[in-house]
Structures are given as structure tokens and as C-alpha cells.
């Protein structure tokens, strides 16, 4: 196949109400770009969280910039942040910093070309774009990727809650039952029932905007805790001589796949875009730029201070090295991370169920009856809980998700969609878009092939 160059150009910064469908040649009617329709939708879908937070509704308005930024940040920030110090150890401070800047940029750019393609074609998801632009069969492979990545992340979040609670439950003052694995699983189950499950049931991602805002605040607080801990402990006698500025080849590749996993939020960008007020690619680029810049800063601070604090003692999650039972500030930070993970769990459930709805021919979440959505969401959340309690570690899964699934979802597919949406040529899109799109494709193939091979090799070597 070769990229089509026959479709009419559409202004990237306008949100048309009538868009040609590339797959059928007809015209799709999209919701009109008006505050009135958005307000009506807001009135119809007010969840329990909205009601509770009505007095401060103006702070995070429905579909506004703050809502978009918080939702994108919440979809990005999660268990990955506690792995960043290991990424700095493997890659070295200089290389890790450069990779963070690069992946931050490519994340914003891939989101931009995804929503541009959405406006050009009318396709509302990764799966629809794969079917309409790449052909039948590609959509089911894409649905598989979406499900594996998002559901696997949900399982990882459940495990992470257990890891967070372990140091708090292992204190001498804790009752005997709660110090056992069964007791920990009971507490994880209670957290899932009280926080994770209810947040997973709403149909709209904007229903999570308050939880997203609170979760992002706790991530910021935890990073502050990491900085304070490093200043009082690892950096008390200066920077250690074992700190590396540049890592070796395999370590850099390992760090790259980890950073790719940590930044992935493209799977949620369509839901955010459809629910924003006056959606245009320019506004989405603005919001995603703000969100990813803040995420990148938090990742840099957590990565470098965690690395400077513990040095070569790092292996996997940095949570294993702190002692929250002896540090009240860090204990609060652990609880905050758990709250953030609950919000991230719910956000990842949404694209997981979208993949299932697509395979079943039900459309997107917005097209599905509420009772069906409740059943599917509940089943997915329950399966994630069960697997999270059974699996002892998710480290290898995260590496696989970052290399194989991340390479496709964050690099290869956005580039292919943009190319095949029409008018992709050096003359039409300019040298910058042309070059960046092709480098997305090349880097994505590299990540899938070599990153996945490295993950398998490391696991076999163990």
C-alpha cells in the first residue's frame, strides 16, 4: 500500500461538522461545535462525583482546558513514575534526559496527527482508523493491541497498590492477619471495591476529571517527597562517584522502552478530544503540550532524584527502597500514589472496553447501552483484580507493554494513519511534518523489534 494523495485538504485548526468518510465515500454528521450542545451533554451525564464537587465545578469545567490537561496527565502518570529512577540508572542521566525530551515531543506530535486524522476521516478510534485506512483485519489486530496494553496496565495497577500497601502493613503495630499475604489481598480488594470499581463504571472520561485532578496533585506531592528524601539521605554527603552520565547500549534501550510505556496516553486522546469544548487540533496540541510538559518535568525530577538517592541499589520499582513506616511524609505520599493509581486504573478500563465493543460490533462506549457498559466494565475490573492478586510481579509485563504495544500505539499506528488519511506528501504537509512522521514510523519499528527482543532475552536469562 502507498499513502493516498487524492483526498481534499481540511484546515487542521477548524472542526468541520461535515466530513467525507474515506471508507464509504459518504458524509458523516459530527456533533455541532457549540457550547450549547456541550452544556446539554454535561447536564445529562452528571455523575455522582460531579454532584459532590458542584461548588467547585468552575475550577475544572467540563471539556475545558483544565479538564483536558488533568485527564491527559492522569492517563499518563501512574505506576511508571516509580520505575523512572531505574531508567536513569540504565540509561545514564544525560541520555535519560534527552530521551524524556524526545518522547515528550513525539507524544504531543502523535496526539496532534491522530486528531487531525480523526477530523479528516470521521473515524473515532484506533480500531476504526485501522479498518478504514489500513484495511479489514488491521482493526482486529489494533483492538488486540489496545486491549492487551490497557488491560495489562490495569493489572499492573492492582499489583502496584499491593506493593504500596506492603510497607505500611508490615509495621510491628499491625495485626497479624493484615501482615500476611491474604490480609494484604483483603485490603487491596477493599481499595478496589471502594475506589477502583466505582471510577471504572462511568461512560465519559470527563466524569473522572475531579479524580484526575486529585491524583495529579498526589503525584506532585510524592515527587516532592522523593526530592526531600534524597536531600536528607542520598545527597547528604554529595553526589556518589558511581553515578553514570551515559549508560551502555542495552541499558539505554531498556530505559527507552520504559520511558515509552511511561508516556503513553494516546489511547485516551479521542475520548478527551470528543468531550472538549470547541475541539480543534490546535487546542488539543496546546492542551497536550501543557500536560506532557508537566509530566516530563515530574518524570525528570523523580528519575534523577531517585537515582541520586539510591544509586546502584535501584532495581525495578523505587517503592521497595523507601521506609514509609518511619517517615510520615513518605507514608502520605504512598497513600497518595495509591489514590492516583485508582484513577489511572479507571482511565485504562475505558479503552479496554472500547476494544471489546469494537470487536462485538457495538461501536464506542458512547454508543453502548448503559447497562451493557456497566456489565462489561465490572467484569473487566474484576478480572484485573483477580489477575493482580495472583501475579507476583508485573515488571516483565510493563517492559513488554512499552516495547511491543507502545511501539505500535505511540509511534507506528499514528504515523500510518496520518499517511493514509490523504494528501501526505512533502509538498502538501511540509518538510517538518513529513520528516517527523517518518521518524515516528522508523523509531516505532525499532522499539517493537529490538525492545521486545531485549525483554524476552532478559526474561530467559533470569
TrEMBL record:
Gene Ontology, cellular component aspect: cytoplasm; membrane
Membrane spanning stretches: 93-117, 138-162, 182-201, 213-232, 252-270, 290-308, 328-349, 370-391, 397-419, 431-457
Main location: membrane
An MF annotation (GO) of this entry: L-amino acid transmembrane transporter activity
Stretches assigned to the Amino acid transporter transmembrane domain: 65-456
Subcellular location: Membrane
Membrane topology reported for the UniProt record: Multi-pass membrane protein
Keywords tagged on the record: Membrane, Transmembrane, Transmembrane helix
InterPro entries on file: AA_transpt_TM (IPR013057)
Entries under Pfam families matching the protein: Aa_trans
PANTHER family found in the cross-reference section: ACID TRANSPORTER, PUTATIVE-RELATED, AMINO ACID TRANSPORTER
Protein name: L-Lysine transport protein, putative
Amino acid at each position: 500500500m502507498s499513502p493516498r494523495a487524492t483526498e481534499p485538504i481540511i484546515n487542521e485548526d477548524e472542526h468541520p461538522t461535515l466530513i467525507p468518510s474515506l471508507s464509504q465515500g459518504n458524509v458523516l454528521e459530527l456533533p455541532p461545535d457549540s457550547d450549547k450542545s456541550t452544556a446539554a451533554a454535561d447536564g445529562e451525564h452528571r455523575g455522582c462525583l460531579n454532584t459532590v464537587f458542584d461548588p467547585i465545578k468552575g475550577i475544572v469545567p467540563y471539556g475545558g482546558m483544565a479538564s483536558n490537561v488533568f485527564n491527559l496527565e492522569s492517563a499518563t502518570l501512574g505506576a511508571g513514575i516509580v520505575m523512572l529512577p531505574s531508567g536513569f540508572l540504565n540509561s545514564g542521566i544525560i541520555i535519560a534526559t534527552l530521551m524524556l525530551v524526545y518522547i515528550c515531543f513525539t507524544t504531543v506530535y502523535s496526539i496532534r496527527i491522530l486528531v487531525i486524522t480523526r477530523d479528516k476521516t470521521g473515524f473515532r478510534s484506533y480500531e476504526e482508523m485501522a479498518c478504514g485506512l489500513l484495511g479489514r483485519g488491521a482493526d482486529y489486530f489494533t483492538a488486540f493491541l489496545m486491549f492487551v496494553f490497557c488491560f495489562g496496565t490495569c493489572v499492573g495497577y492492582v499489583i502496584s497498590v499491593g506493593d504500596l500497601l506492603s510497607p505500611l502493613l508490615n509495621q510491628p503495630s499491625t495485626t497479624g492477619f493484615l501482615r500476611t499475604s491474604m490480609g494484604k489481598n483483603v485490603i487491596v480488594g477493599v481499595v478496589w471495591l471502594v475506589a477502583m470499581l466505582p471510577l471504572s463504571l462511568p461512560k465519559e472520561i470527563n466524569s473522572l476529571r475531579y479524580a484526575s485532578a486529585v491524583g495529579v496533585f498526589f503525584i506532585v506531592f510524592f515527587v516532592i517527597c522523593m526530592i526531600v528524601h534524597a536531600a536528607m539521605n542520598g545527597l547528604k554527603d554529595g553526589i556518589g562517584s558511581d553515578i553514570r552520565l551515559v549508560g551502555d547500549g542495552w541499558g539505554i534501550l531498556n530505559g527507552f522502552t520504559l520511558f515509552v510505556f511511561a508516556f503513553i496516553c494516546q489511547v485516551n486522546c479521542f475520548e478527551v478530544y470528543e468531550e472538549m469544548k470547541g475541539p480543534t487540533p490546535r487546542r488539543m496540541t496546546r492542551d497536550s503540550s501543557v500536560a506532557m510538559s508537566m509530566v516530563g518535568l515530574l518524570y525528570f525530577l523523580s528519575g534523577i532524584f531517585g537515582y541520586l538517592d539510591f544509586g546502584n541499589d535501584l532495581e525495578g520499582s523505587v517503592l521497595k527502597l523507601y521506609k514509609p513506616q518511619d517517615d510520615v511524609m513518605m507514608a502520605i505520599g504512598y497513600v497518595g500514589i495509591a489514590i492516583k493509581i485508582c484513577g489511572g486504573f479507571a482511565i485504562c478500563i475505558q479503552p479496554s472496553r472500547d476494544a471489546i465493543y469494537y470487536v462485538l460490533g457495538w461501536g464506542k462506549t458512547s454508543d453502548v447501552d448503559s447497562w451493557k457498559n456497566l456489565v462489561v466494565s465490572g467484569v473487566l475490573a474484576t478480572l484485573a483484580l483477580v489477575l493482580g492478586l495472583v501475579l507476583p510481579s508485573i515488571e516483565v509485563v510493563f517492559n513488554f507493554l512499552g516495547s511491543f504495544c507502545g511501539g505500535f500505539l505511540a509511534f507506528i499506528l499514528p504515523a500510518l494513519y496520518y499517511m493514509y488519511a490523504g494528501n501526505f506528501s512533502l509538498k502538501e504537509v511540509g518538510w517538518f511534518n513529513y520528516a517527523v512522521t517518518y521518524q515516528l514510523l522508523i523509531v516505532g519499528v525499532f522499539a517493537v523489534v529490538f525492545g521486545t527482543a531485549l525483554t524476552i532475552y532478559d526474561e530467559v536469562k533470569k
